[in-house]
Amino acid sequence: EMIMIGNCSGSSNPDMWFPELNTRAKHGRPKELAIERAVTNSITAINLCNTCPAKDACLNEGYKSYNLANGIWGGKLAGERLATAGYGQKGRDEWEIEIENRVMERLAKQ
């Protein structure tokens, strides 16, 4: 197992790198507040990734089969990695895709 020391190491909020896990609703769509928090946390995480010395190694880790559909790795959202790997968005919840779309829109405006 590879050990990376990156900007995320020792974070007070490691959950921000896994927005899909923190917005799961017991039944149906998560509340808007949870979605917005996931968007904000994702943007913060990606901005930290973009200045990280371990970014490339982390992104490689994110393309491994057990990480591909979850989390932010090397500054890339799960949907971005899935698309690049040729899997598209099949099987993903619509709100996961919505979170990622909001993140991408806001990052484009930065």
Structure description:
- The structure is a single chain.
- The chain has helices spanning 19-22, 32-49, 55-62, 78-84, 94-109.
- By secondary structure, the chain is mainly α.
- α2 (32-49) packs across α5.
- The N and C termini lie far apart (35 Å).
Secondary-structure map:
Layout: H1 19-22, H2 32-49, H3 55-62, H4 78-84, H5 94-109
Helix pairs in contact: 2-5
Brief description of this entry?
Helix 2 crosses helix 5.
Molecular shape = globular
Mean pLDDT: 88
Structural class: mainly alpha
Backbone CA Rg: 13 Å
Main sheet characteristics: none
Number of strands: 0
Task: List the main descriptive attributes of the protein structure presented here.
single chain, 110 residues, mainly alpha, 5 helices
